[in-house]
Amino acid sequence: MANFKTNDLRLVRNGMPAATDAATVTRFKVMDWAEKIRSRDVHVVVIGIGYVGLPLVLEFAKAGFRVTGYDKDPRKVEKLSRGESYIEDISSDSLRPHVSEGRLKATLEESVLATADAIVVCVPTPLNKTKEPDMSYIAAATDAIARHFQPGQCVILESTTYPGTTKELVAPMLERVGAVIGETLFLAFSPERVDPANETYGTRNTPKVIGGATPKCLDTCVALYSQIIDTVVPVSSTDAAEMVKLLENTFRAVNIGLVNEVAIMCHKLNIDVWEIIDAAATKPFGFMKFTPGPGLGGHCIPVDPLYLSWKLRALKYTAQFIELADDINSNMPSYVVQRATDALNAHSRSVRGSKILIVGVAYKRDVSDMRESPAIDVIELLHQKGAEIAFVDPFVPVFSEGTVTLNSLTKDVDASEFDLTIIVTDHTDFDYERLVRQSKLVLDTRNATRKLKDIPAGRVVKL
Ligand code: SAJ
Hints:
With 463 residues, the chain is an alpha/beta fold. The chain is built from 14 helices and 18 strands.
């Protein structure tokens, strides 16, 4: 009979983490989570230390827990091990004390999962080339957890995903190694709500929704998260928690799609859409301001709603608003290029052979992230039409997408050398007055020039 010994509830069979079964585990009292949380005798392992995982690692460390960031990216692990941040919203000074005290670590070794009391999964959930969910990261993380499963562990999935993921994909993979949900495994879903560059809301003061696989799972995970987040919002199930996040981001994508279509309609009506939106926004109730733009960037808003529509398609239902918004938002780069073509035509110039300056290529203002940025399609389309393109973006030194690789010009670029300037991303710290004064013609897709006075007639064309 193999000998079992417990080392703080870590079942070990002949030196290896045991694949347990319910009968075996009943001989070992599942840890008293409330007591362990109170005494901070909890080792938290965060899988994925990117823009979501790293702030969580820091908050658990600040709350006095032992925490290890586990990632496959040697650069992140090396930097975090040295107490160096690689995320704009997290300072190295905030990390360093916890690293030097030895409570905050980082590792490339999957075996760390066998020493975890709580595991938080913060891995990417992108779309594949056919715009369907790529679940490979969640599956790989869950597989690793299963291989090192220990009775009593708490597993919380944070990656945005379709309703049913925790119940249909994660839970079975852990039950296959003997986990008993609600008894030896406390499983929950808690959507990440990290808003890059948001100086008001961070991890601690952004309310956190949590749905548990069972009531005991919910209680355990709420108890843990309550140590690092001011407001925890329990919901009835993991499906509900998964759906909350998708509603949040579908709400944004659909409303951005609406306002983009309003911009197209206003142009056909020869009405200034920006004036209309500003005036509508004076309504103190029943209206929420969104603004048109060159398209939908980032790795949340363009992606998350399509996880929901994909799930509903599997249930033979078409999520019409999601698909319509995706059509409109995905078409905005082409619309911008059409407007640029019209603007040049009005000055008897073709796109082919024109020198075009793109101002701002990041997916939104004041960030350096290029993921899904509409600038990628705008530049690609203009390149295909034969334009000679340059760009300036203080946050993005190099643009390299598809067939185009460009280095950013400096902020004091002389726009008079170009036939057309297109403002694609409206970074705050930019001299738009000088840009407009020097440009022959400006297409402003973000109303970045709204505060300028005495603009020469016809100089600026707005979306
Ligand atoms: N955009 C518009 N018009 C708008 C708002 C946004 O065209 O009125 C564009 C942006 O330029 C960008 C894209 O949509 O290309 C997404 O912008 P976003 O403001 O939604 O920013 P994200 O992608 O950083 O979204 C995150 C999300 N946070 C999480 O998923 C945890 C989102 O839920 C937040 O609401 C959003 O930040 C935020 O409020 O800034």
